[in-house]
Specification:
By secondary structure, this protein is of the alpha+beta class. It is 35% helix and 28% strand. It contains two helices and three strands. A three-stranded antiparallel sheet has the order 1-2-3, covered by helices on one side. It is globular and about 40 Å long. The N and C termini lie far apart (38 Å).
Amino acid sequence: MPPTVTPNPDPLEALRLEFPGHRVWRSMRGKALGEWCATLHDPSAGVDPTLMEPTADGLRERLLAERERAAERV
């Protein structure tokens, strides 16, 4: 029987695990959390050096697009 995969309830950690070529983090607006951000660390994982989106889902979509853009360069 295959092992059961439990979804990661922490969207920040889930993005970090899914996109290891980027440093994924949250910006701060004063004392509150702001934009969802990703900084490129592996040029084979993307094109743009920094991505910012208002939601985790929005950042995930951008990171998927970056992965495709990087694959097209090769």
